Amino acid sequence: MEAQPVRQPWAHDREVSWPWRSTLLITVFVLVGSHFAAEQQEGERAALDVFARVLLVLACGLLLWRLRHPVPVVFGTAAGAAVYLGAGYPYGPVFLTVAVACFSAVVAGHRRAAWTAVGMLWAAHVLVAHWLYRWLPPSGDSAASWGQEAVIAAWVAAIVALAELARVRREQWARERAERAQAARRRADEERLRIAQELHDVLAHSISVINVQAGVGLALLDTDPEQARAALTTIKSASKEALGEVRQVLDTLRTPGDAPRAPAPGLDRLPELVEQAASAGLTVRVEGEVPRLPPGADLAAFRIVQEALTNVVRHSGSRRARVRLDHGDRTTLRLCIDDDGPATGADAGGSGNGLAGMRERAAALGGTIEAGPRSDGGFRVLAVLPLRTEPRSSGEEAGR
């Protein structure tokens, strides 16, 4: 069963322009070339007359529709060439019309129709040249040699081969364009998810701190103005930092590919997280040394700790948390964030985008996240991140 024709993007009637120029050039070439061919074959073939020229013009004119209706065109040009040869007119550029029509049909995906039309033309030539020549002009004509038939067969095979080669190349280009477009969409989706994660982590943490401090400020506004002033100062600092990080993320959208204006955050900013958590009323104890990490792992580790502490502030009744860092084997980093609970709502330990974002960051590095209640109460987030602890050069330090 023949495969369905492949509709190329340029093959839609509304999008395809009429090939006037190429058709006009082919028509001029065929008419002029046939005239010279008739002079060279004078006495051997019938002279060109009005009917011959009409056949040539019609065969060339059909090529105007070769992109829109390739099947009727390839059969029409083959029929015109067969009548032209059957009338005894000179061999010549009339075959060019069939070649162009066959090429267009094969490239458009109508391979069987093109092969059938060209095969019918060759069969008609064999019939005329070896049997019907006795009753057809020119008078006194003899049968054609089988060597001539071999040349025509080779010509037909060459046309089909070139058309098939062009079809294969065009399909390959179309696949490559589709793969490039798919890769671009995938990169855009990955970048969109990355930016969504960054914005969620930045805003969730900062807004949680702002929310807690705003509550403190409102409660102490009348009874302890100095403490309320400290809460407002914390709100100002947290909002300024959040605005700076959001601006950095948005800058990557405005100028993709440019180097960031500020270094990406990493575990070297862990003291800032501890300080911000303290301003929100959460005491954080850090155990273990901060390792030197590749930039991607450093950012992921920072965001995981940030999100875990944000969830403690928002969803836990505990005012104490512990962050343990362990990279004893030098191949993985284990981050463990604990609080003693109890949970203050149904979303203990966080929910939805927060935990999902942590898992996605860990998975992107080939790591894992385990989050859930502890057997002795409270909540634990355990992240295991693969890493290569290579010493940073001065250039790497500057780029961070």
Content-based structural category = alpha+beta
Helix/strand order? HHHHHHHHEHEEHEEH
Which overall shape is indicated by the principal axes computed on the Cα atoms?
A: rod-shaped
Number of helices: 11
Number of strands: 5
Q: What do the pLDDT scores average to?
A: 78
Distance between the termini: 61 Å
**Helix share bin:** 55-70%
Radius of gyration: 39 Å
* Largest beta-sheet characterization: 5 strands, mixed
Q: List segments where confidence is low: pLDDT < 50 over at least 5 consecutive residues.
A: 1-14, 389-400
Which range does the strand content fall in? 5-15%
* Biggest β-sheet: strands ordered side by side in the sheet: 1-2-3-5-4
What does this structure look like?
β1, α9 and β2 (320-326) form a beta-alpha-beta unit. This protein has eleven helices and five strands. Residues 1-14 and 389-400 have low confidence and may be disordered. Strands 1-2-3-5-4 form a five-stranded mixed sheet, with helices on one face. It is an alpha+beta fold and 400 residues long. The longest helix has 75 residues, at 146-220.
Give structural attributes.
5-stranded mixed sheet; disordered N terminus; 400 residues; 5 strands; rod-shaped; disordered C terminus; alpha+beta
Quick structural summary:
The chain has helices spanning 20-40, 50-61, 70-86, 94-107, 111-130, 146-220, 225-254, 270-279, 295-315, 353-364, 394-399; strands spanning 283-287, 320-326, 332-339, 368-373, 379-386.
